[in-house]
Amino acid sequence: MYDMATIGIMDSGVGGLSVYREIRKLLPSERYVYFSDSANCPYGEKKPEFIRDRCREITGMMLSRGASAMVIACNTATAAAITTLRSEFSIPFIGMEPAVKPAALGTRAGVIGVLATAGTLKGSNYLKLKHGVEDDIKVVEHVGAGFVELVERGELSGPAAEETVKRSLRPLIAAGADIIVLGCTHYPFLLPVLRKITGPGVRFIDPAPAVARHLRDILRQKNIAMDDPDPGIELLTSGDQRQLENSFRHLIGQ
Ligand code: DGL
């Protein structure tokens, strides 16, 4: 039933669908299995060991469904688990990282903002990226407090969403950031409200299109990309299946 072109995508919840959306644009003929770990969402404040165990288990399940590559469509899970996953499994893993370097190259103000979860901001990969640019520019970071919950509820606009978004954006705007990195895969779904608060003077970077290109290159290199006779997506969750299917329709429009 499953063939070599199946690609596993996972996130703590529905945020990874912002990555799937970009991947599907580039690779419309592959077969996808998406896992939302909704029963354990959010990952943001959870211990790295817990997240690693979840990623291990989810990867094992994806392998049993024939996954030949795995996208960890979650910055927090990438920070906690990708090194371990790469050492324990032989399929390629594609992870997320905050787009600090492109933001540093693009800023005119010399100040960039980073919005991410607490787990991502504490991770060694992010700290390395930040220290790598800090001689030249200022990096101001903030947890997108409440953002994941808004997206999980499908509340992408309205006064409550604006108020929540404003609280986390305020320090970045006050510091003069002209580019803001979206370091959590849930956040791109809030782009309309984020843009409404900042106005046109601030640019947001969503790394998902770059991750999709990276996945395409890896599949080509490893020769595992092929047209699937039955392309599409299978949605799986540790939470409520109907809710995930509704969120999928709401966020992806199918
Ligand atoms: N979407 C995730 C990320 O990219 C996780 C958010 C969360 O569960 O806290 O970090």
Molecular structure report:
The mean pLDDT is 95. The protein has helices at 17-26, 48-64, 75-88, 100-106, 118-122, 124-133, 147-153, 159-174, 191-198, 208-221, 241-252, and strands at 6-11, 31-36, 69-72, 93-94, 111-116, 138-143, 179-182, 203-205, 232-237. It is built from eleven helices and nine strands. Helix 1 packs across helix 10 (208-221) and helix 2 crosses helix 3 (75-88). With 254 residues, the protein is of the alpha/beta class. D-glutamic acid binds next to helix 3. D-glutamic acid is lined by residues 11-13, 15, 41-44, 74-76, 96, 117, 120, 148, 184-186.
Summarize the topology.
Layout (H helix, E strand, L loop, with lengths): L5 E6 L5 H10 L4 E6 L11 H17 L4 E4 L2 H14 L4 E2 L5 H7 L4 E6 L1 H5 L1 H10 L4 E6 L3 H7 L5 H16 L4 E4 L8 H8 L4 E3 L2 H14 L10 E6 L3 H12 L2
Parallel strand pairs: 1-2, 1-3, 2-9, 3-4, 5-6, 5-7, 7-8
The chain binds D-glutamic acid (DGL).
Name some characteristics of this structure.
254 residues; alpha/beta; 11 helices; binds D-glutamic acid
Helix fraction bin: 40-55%
* pLDDT < 50 stretches: none
Structural class by helix and strand composition:
alpha/beta
- Order of strands, widest sheet: 4-3-1-2-9
Taking all Cα atoms into account, the compactness measure Rg is 18 Å
Heteromolecules bound: D-glutamic acid
Major sheet size, sense and barrel closure:
5 strands, parallel
Mean pLDDT over the residues: 95
N-to-C span: 24 Å
The total of helices stands at: 11
Q: Report strand %.
A: 15-25%
* Total strands: 9
- SSE topology string: EHEHEHEHEHHEHHEHEHEH
Shape: globular
